[in-house]
Structures are given as C-alpha cells and as structure tokens.
Design a protein that fits this description.
Elements lengths: L7 E2 L2 E9 L3 E8 L4 E8 L7 H19 L9 E7 L2 E7 L5 E2 L12 H20 L2 E2 L8 E3 L5 E3 L6 E2 L5 H4 L13 H4 L6 H17 L9 H10 L14 H10 L11 H16 L7 H9 L9 H10 E6 L4 E3 L7 E7 L2 E5 L2 E6 L4 E2 L13 E4 L3 E7 H5 L3 H26 L3
Antiparallel strand pairs: 1-2, 2-3, 3-4, 4-6, 5-6, 7-9, 8-11, 9-10, 12-19, 13-18, 14-17, 14-19, 15-16, 15-18
Helix pairs in contact: 2-5, 2-8, 5-7, 7-8, 7-10, 9-10
Length: 430
C-alpha cells in the first residue's frame, strides 16, 4: 500500500499514510472539489487469502460503509463517501487533525481528572444510544476507538465490525461470529451468544474502568483466561485501587459490568443520565457532603431499613440532594410532581389550607403516593427549619432493579400505614 502515497483514489488526492490497522490503512487525503481534508480508509487486499477470508473481508468493508453511513452525530466520526476503484475498496471519513485516542489515558501515570472522564463517558453514552436507535451496535468499543479532538470533543470511530439490526439487506452484509477486542467484549459477545446494545454498554464500562484505574479488569495471559474472567470472575472493586472515586461512580461502573445483561443499564441513555448526575455532584462545592457521606447518612434513616448498600446507591445515583431554608415551600398544595422526597435532616411542616396538620422528622417521606398514581398534592410541605431533602423521580424507580422497586414499595406502604394510624389517633383520640 505504500505505493499509493501521492496518488489519487477516486476523486481524492492521497497525501500520506496516517494510520494502519488489522483490516486496512488510513491515509490523509484531499478532496479537490470541496478543498477539505478527509481520512481515507483503504481495505487491505491480500492476494494469498483464500476465498472464504476474501469474502469475509469484503463483507466487513460493506458492513462498515453501511453502518457508519447511517450515522450523523457530533460524537461519531462522519462517513463522507465510499467506493471501489481498481479492486481497492475505500471509505472517506471526517478527518480530525491532532486527535488522540483514549488508550493514552489508560495508564496509571497519565490518568485524566474524574470530571473529564465522566464528561467523556457521558458523550460516548449519548452517541452510542443514538447509534443503537439507528439499528447499529458497534461491537468494538475500546479506548483506541474513541478519540479526543484538540478541542476536547469526543469522536467514536471504527464501525468495521458493527452489527446492523435494521434494514432489508442486513443479512447480506453481516459478519456473524466472535468479533471484537477480547479484553473489552461482553460475556455474551465472548461466548458468541446473542449481542444487543447492552454489549456496547458493557464494553464502555470496561473503558470507564480503565480510565479511572489505569488497569484493564479482564487482563490475562491468553484468550481462555480472558474469557474465564469476563464470564465468571468479578472485577476488582475500584475502591481497592483508588480511594478518591465517588461511591456512586463505582456503583455505575459495577452496574455496566454485570455479567448478565439484565443487571446492566437497558439503554445507553440511562447510563448517560446517571453519569450526568455524577458529573454535577463532582462539580459541587467541597462544602457539600461527599457521595460516601451521603450514603452513610441515608443508611441511618428509618426509610431505608432493609435496603442493602447497592440499592441505596441506586437511589443516590438517581436522586437530587436539595437544601431548603426555613419557610421555603418544598411541595405546594394542589401542585403535581412526578417524584417523592425523603427528609434527610431537619423538620418540615405539613400544611393544609394554611393550617399545620403534622410535623415530619428525619427519615420521613412524602409524595410517595405518586408511585401508585399522579394525584394533585393534598397538602403543602414547608421547611420548618434548615433541612436537607433527597428528591427521587418516579421514572428512576421504574428503571431500578426489581429488588430495589420492592424495597421502595415496602417502605412506602410502611410510612403510609404509620401516617394512617397517626391520623386515626387524631380523629379518635380515645
């Protein structure tokens, strides 16, 4: 392929080689009509390949062109053109000068800051969710396939082994089998079982783990040992490697790396949403409670009696920690809110028609009726003194694990029963 330097391919003028991979060579090229630089990926042609290998390579080429051509997203490398000339198959792509791949930041001596790692993963999650909704599963998410531009923008690249899940001619261009980079494969991918969008989520979780620790969680001496680790061996907890990672972020990593897809995020946008909450939490003032402190605070509250630590973490990830000054209205009578509240500290006044009918103390919940229906609030909740409240959207509960949802249901019913008995006592004191 070196002989192609300074030659033309299609309408493109090849300038120089800028990259080389297992399936082809990438050149910097110039489009003489638009006067812009592009990256041209030329599929390798091995005359010694047998018919089966040649057919497989041809399928992979058409697969990449078709998959990448369906995607137009700011965080995915754009495909501009594709063609065949003199038996050479090529794809013209967006050229990103000065870009660096994430593998440069997966070593212990060159880790990125926590907020930057989370920001990058948010953009990756959103981009993957977009691709999945377009019927494209990447199947090869790894640090070398995620680029950072000079402007710190994120670009996912190399859809060479992507799986297309939509389209009339899907079967004619698909390459089925164990494809990908072993240390980043999901359990179902490495065992050649059915791959879904959740496989990409697992792979992104491996990348996130590496960016945080500088260690690949499934490194091993050979493929058999890698497969064993991915399918059967729990990854080393991040807290054993670093002590400055927020517990909520560790919880997110653990969820992405669940062995069975049912334990992972169902869609990448859910992962993006949780990461965004972590990003906001990291950016808070140092005066705020850390994630660990918040976890310990919730564990002491009666509402969370019976919850295990991972279930409380699930609540924290999807909840919003809020402070209210004395006299501030938290919930307004007659209003509607799609969520419920747990009083972490301080006291609140329950008022109906301006009259105080009850006072709630730390550990109490309110608004949980919206778990069963969406009624208007029958009372106002007002801060009686400075208080802290955890607000959790019902949508988050609906996407939590089944065990976590059952814990919520029991806690809601317990609190509602206590309030019912209290109300009866007020109506019939004797």
């Amino acid at each position: 392929m070196k002989g192609l330097d300074s030659q033309a391919l299609g309408k493109y003028e090849l300038v120089r080689e800028i990259g080389r991979g297992s399936m082809g060579t990438v050149y910097l090229a110039r489009d003489p009509f638009s006067l812009r630089d592009v990256a041209i990926k030329i599929a390798d042609v091995d005359p010694k390949s047998n018919l089966r290998i040649a057919r497989r390579r041809r399928k992979l080429f058409f697969n990449e062109a078709k998959a990448a051509g369906k995607l137009r997203h700011p965080n995915i490398i754009a495909t501009i053109d594709a063609g065949i000339e003199d038996s050479l198959r090529y794809i013209a792509m967006e050229y990103v000068p000065g870009a660096q791949t994430l593998d440069l930041f997966c070593t212990k001596d060159n880790l990125l800051s926590l907020d930057r790692v989370v920001s990058i993963m948010i953009k990756c999650s959103i981009a993957l969710d977009y691709a999945h909704n377009k019927g494209v599963i990447h199947r090869d998410i790894k640090p070398k396939n995620i680029m950072l531009t000079q402007e710190n923008e994120v670009k996912i690249c190399d859809f060479g082994i992507a799986l297309l899940t939509e389209g009339e001619d899907v079967d004619t261009t698909q390459v089925i089998g164990t494809l990908g980079s072993p240390r980043y494969m999901s359990p179902e991918q490495v065992t050649n079982e059915g791959v879904t969008n959740q496989s990409d989520i697992f792979s992104l979780g491996v990348v996130l783990y590496e960016l945080l620790s500088g260690i690949n969680p499934f490194s091993a001496r050979n493929m058999a040992d890698v497969t064993q680790k991915i399918t059967r061996v729990a990854h080393q907890p991040l807290k054993e490697i670093r002590d400055d990672i927020p517990p909520m972020l560790m919880h997110i990593v653990d969820r992405t790396l669940k062995k069975h897809p049912a334990g992972r995020y169902r869609v990448a946008m859910e992962l993006a949403a949780d990461l965004n909450l972590i990003y906001q939490d990291i950016k808070l003032s140092e005066q705020e409670l850390s994630g660990k402190d918040r976890l310990e605070a919730l564990k002491e509250l009666p509402f969370f009696r019976g919850f295990d630590e991972s279930e409380i973490m699930d609540v924290l990830v999807g909840g919003v920690w809020k402070h209210y000054q004395e006299g501030q209205v938290i919930v307004e009578e007659g209003g509607e809110e799609d969520g419920f509240f747990v009083l972490v500290d301080g006291r609140v006044s329950v008022r109906r028609a301006g009259k105080e009918i009850d006072v709630l103390n730390p550990g109490a919940s309110f608004g949980e009726i919206s778990f069963f229906c969406r009624p208007e609030h029958t009372a106002s909740i007002v801060a009686k003194d400075f208080c802290t409240v955890l607000e959790v959207g019902m949508n988050h509960i609906e996407h939590a694990s089944v065990s976590c949802q059952l814990r919520f249901l029991k806690a809601f019913l317990r609190n509602m029963s206590i309030r019912y008995v209290h109300a009866l006592g007020q109506l019939c004191p004797n």
